[in-house]
Design goal:
The structure is a homodimer. By secondary structure, the first copy, chain A, is mainly alpha-helical. Helices cover 61% and strands 5% of the residues of chain A. A 6-stranded mixed β-sheet of chain A has the order 4-3-5-6-7-8. Chain A starts with 25 loop residues before the first helix and ends with a helix. Chains A and B meet through helix 7, helix 17, helix 19, strand 3 and helix 20 of A and helix 7, helix 17, helix 19, strand 3 and helix 20 of B.
Chain lengths: 594, 594
């Protein structure tokens, strides 16, 4: 396969045209398809379909769209992903966070539920799909690496909290709008007097039931002697049971006449053929949100895909994933859907249920198609609060409160990135939160590299190694100072080295040699080269020689033809030990004597 | 002094309140002031004053302001800088690039030459001064390090070209406006039929004269036996001679009646007391340009200040400079001036002329004050084209065409930063060019660190050193792979290491040990820690032990309490040689045998 054209090569390889074309993974797994694989895929598809029906309806409502749009978005994208995707088990379709981002992106252009709103959602999926395709063809998958784990974690947790808050209004049977937690909570507080108690009671009961199904049902069934596999499947069917029960009650007791909001008429039939709006003004406005949705969707999808691929020693190809997700989103736009991606929970279920190949996705698509042909009349009396309960229970598991504590212990910079992302997302909204998180994490990284750790090092007795004089018992000479710069030299930190050498010179009056141990210097840019020239000149004027040691190959290649190297008063040593042995033999003798 | 609170410390020191307060360098040099110092300062002040009078008029016109504003901006700021500045020889006042940026910033709010325009310039100086003060008090001087040399060089060169183009209209005796080179050249071409030939002839003559004075006068005078010092001063007085000559001709021959534009009435008197406009809408609009002007002014000032300080083994304190420049700009705003900073050419002249202390600046301010009290009537007949010639000759020396070739040879990334800054500034304007340059240089740096160089290393025979197997003849074992990661591990490159270890494992079937040589890893963030955990787990499942060697102190401190270290299957070695000697004794024996 050509997917190995990533960044992780030990050695560079010539670029071939083949490398730049996306692959067709289906050709690989399709050849080896047999009856056993078919069984695994079919069982997994049944379970995922049962899980996906309520989720797709719920996420469509979360995105502000009619429920059937969720079903539409769960057919074509799954088939397209099966053909192009490099993950064997990723389950593509509507997911919570991307649905929330869709609502945030198009809420400003049209009234939720209106035809214009649906068209905007279709257009958003189309633009996002094109962007993903372009990124894949240009091999830009690596850009997703700039979203750090702390930022993703903070963003997903905050999004889950916003989604929960937005669903509480449905549980309460009231209307309340808001793009962030602050607005939502204020709106909910204002609606407290209008609570529809029957809706709330039913919604809370459904929530409690679903939570219990998640935690308590499987152990209980197993204690009753139900086989693990079946117990697992029954636990996954919890939402379907909740839907069946509340729908039946509503139909039988006429709760909808008492004000319980129901899903109502869901059009029966196959996904329609649709086109995005060819409105350049709208495209311009949707470009930025579409980019954020693309990146978040890609990162969510690749994270779960890589985790699951590693468990079966398979490999995910990020650039191929971009192409597959891009094509899936374009297909969603052409069949009345909205932005989709690989979902976390659903993919894990697919994996655990024994899916072997992406064919499971095709079977799931067929299941959803059947449902949208036959099942929709049965959804008429389905209370919206039940779907809200489904969403709440699903997203609450995404909230990772531990990340704050873990990063606080490990690194304050990572903690700051989590905290800023979390707070900005909660207080301002999903788009602002994501941008703030990325900005802060990059700024903190730049800030750290701009203040490098520079250690004065000495010889560890009995070895040829050098360590920090402040941390280890080492040998030094008053005539020589060894500085180890723990960072690549570039414009933001070049002046710091100048200051540091000046200080070292001022501290040691008898100094004759400065040796820079360059083992941690991975690059020297033009600004840093000018600083090195300035340092060399100042030392030369003070009668002190400047030497380098352990300069890495790529750095040396670059330095070779520069004025700095031509004018260097000292030498370049392969190892720091050679430098010390030659320049201060007394240290070498001391070291051997110990 | 407290200025040593910079970043360049070998060891951290406790923060004292004193460190956070700006200093008063005048207390230091003022105490040792004597007659000899006075003489040096006075001579330098006379020469700088002669140079500053035409420059201040010219730069005020460049900024779109009445010429006397240039004189106003050359009094109070010099005195304030003398009290607060940490450079002994920096000559503060109006400079070309900042004047150009001032025109670009306020041109959109008012008609050049109108009272509202002047007020906007005053307000801009005030805001910029407050920003510099705040950055100084918050010790944010290091932020200027994020402007790389290539970006500064490209920006200054492009600005000089724009300034030259903007002055050609004055030489041609026509009107032409534009914020970038493209607009200016188009406007100039349109004005070709309207050239005022007398103005052009006189302007070109003045330009040629000034160029000759710069290059040829000093050698000529010295050949005639004039002492070096005097020859130098006479060469510096070139612009004054050009002004005297063209003013006399204009007055005597009545050129102004033939259409040669003259400076006209320059109000006689001391700088007025003024206040910025307290218009919040204007402040908001000016905030971004003021920030850019502050940063550019600070960088220009600090660059020349540091160069000159190093020549006399003095030290510049960047945060103190921020305070001094901030207060200078506020004082400019309160006395009818516009944004000022330390000028490159003028400071070098001050230094060469023998200035010893900032008192030279106070004497210069007195000289300018005398000039604005007495000399202004003499400036009535001064042709504007002469001032344009002064500017052109001054800024052309700032154009550094060599930087393109130098960076192209040394590093394509640096070349790209220069080229983008240069082209964006020329094609779009100064503000856009600077922002584009900083963005591109940071993005290229991030891109580089996101694709780290990872080398498979082996033992150099006869030493305890390890080098790249592809570049050196080294010893390796089929049971062990040593990987040296040439970059700190952080979110943008964490996944690359995962891929790389996977590849190495796939290439060596008999592998039992993976040793990561961490000598170039200066930090591991939370995202990279998760990747390391993933790598360790995958290796464990494959029966391969993961070891670390040469982990730096700060990195080890952080890793110590993590789950990664608790679950590590291998060991952490102080040196990579110890790891190899213990894990593959056969390699050690081979190495000693050679």
């Amino acid at each position: 396969m050509d997917g190995a054209a990533g960044n992780g090569r030990l050695t560079a390889q010539p670029t071939r045209l083949r490398q730049w074309l996306p692959g067709l993974p289906i050709l690989e797994w399709g050849r080896a398809y047999d009856r056993e694989t078919l069984t695994g895929d079919l069982v997994a598809a049944v379970i995922v379909t049962i899980m996906l029906i309520p989720q797709s309806l719920a996420y469509a409502l979360l995105a502000g769209l009619p429920p059937e749009v969720g079903l539409y978005a769960s057919v074509a994208p799954l088939v397209i992903y099966a053909v192009l995707g490099s993950s064997r088990v990723l389950a593509v379709g509507p997911v919570a966070v991307v649905s929330l981002m869709t609502a945030a992106a198009i809420g400003q252009f049209a009234e939720a539920g209106s035809p214009a709103y649906w068209t905007a959602a279709i257009t958003l999926a189309f633009i996002s799909g094109l962007m993903l395709l372009a990124m894949g063809l240009l091999r830009l998958g690596f850009l997703a690496n700039f979203l750090s784990h702390p930022v993703i974690s903070g963003f997903i947790s905050a999004s889950a909290l916003i989604i929960t808050a937005s669903q509480i209004k449905t549980l309460m049977g009231v209307k309340a709008e808001g793009h962030n937690l602050v607005e939502l909570l204020r709106a909910l507080l204002g609606q407290l007097p209008n609570i529809h108690w029957l809706t709330l009671a039913m919604g809370l009961a459904a929530t409690a039931f679903l939570l219990w199904v998640r935690r308590g049902l499987k152990p209980l069934l197993m204690r009753w002697g139900v086989p693990v596999r079946l117990a697992d499947t029954m636990a996954k069917a919890g939402p379907v049971a909740a839907i069946a029960a509340t729908t039946s009650f509503t139909w039988a007791l006429g709760w909808h006449e008492q004000g319980v909001r129901i899903v109502g008429t869901v059009p029966q039939g196959l996904p329609p053929l649709t086109l995005p709006a060819w409105d350049m003004a709208l495209w311009r406005e949707l470009a930025a949100p579409a980019l954020l949705i693309s990146v978040v969707g890609f990162v969510e999808s690749v994270s779960v895909g890589q985790t699951l691929a590693a468990r079966r020693r398979q490999r995910l190809m990020p650039d191929q994933e971009l192409v597959a997700l891009g094509a899936s989103n374009v297909s969603a736009a052409l069949t009345g859907g909205f932005p989709v991606t690989g979902g976390f929970a659903r993919s894990v279920v697919n994996f655990d249920a024994g899916a072997r190949t992406p064919a499971a996705g095709v079977f799931t698509a067929m299941g959803i198609m059947l449902a949208s042909l036959l099942l929709t009349p049965a959804l008429y009396y389905l209370p919206q609060a039940t779907l809200a309960a489904t969403i709440i229970v699903a997203v609450l598991s995404l909230v990772d409160v531990g990340i704050l504590k873990r990063t606080w212990t490990y690194s304050k910079a990572d903690f700051a990135a989590v905290a800023v992302t979390l707070l900005a997302t909660l207080a301002l909204g999903v788009e602002q939160g994501l941008v703030a998180g990325v900005t802060v994490s990059l700024a903190l990284y730049l800030l750290r590299t701009s203040r490098p750790h520079i250690a004065k090092v000495g010889l560890v007795p009995g070895t040829q190694s050098f360590r920090n004089v402040l941390r280890h018992h080492v040998l030094v000479s008053p005539r020589l100072v060894s500085l180890r710069v723990d960072e690549s030299l570039y414009f933001a930190n070049a002046r710091v080295l100048e200051d540091c050498v000046n200080d070292a010179v001022a501290q040691q009056p008898g100094l004759r040699h400065v040796v820079l141990q360059c083992s941690a210097i991975n690059a020297i840019d033009a600004s840093a080269l000018e600083s090195l020239e300035a340092i060399a000149q100042r030392l030369r004027e003070a009668g002190i020689a400047l030497h380098l040691s352990e300069v890495k190959g790529p750095v040396m290649d670059r330095l070779r033809d520069t004025a700095f190297m031509r004018d260097l008063t000292g030498k370049v040593y392969l190892t720091h030990y050679q430098a010390i042995a030659e320049l201060t033999p007394e240290v070498k003798i001391n070291a051997l004597g110990q």
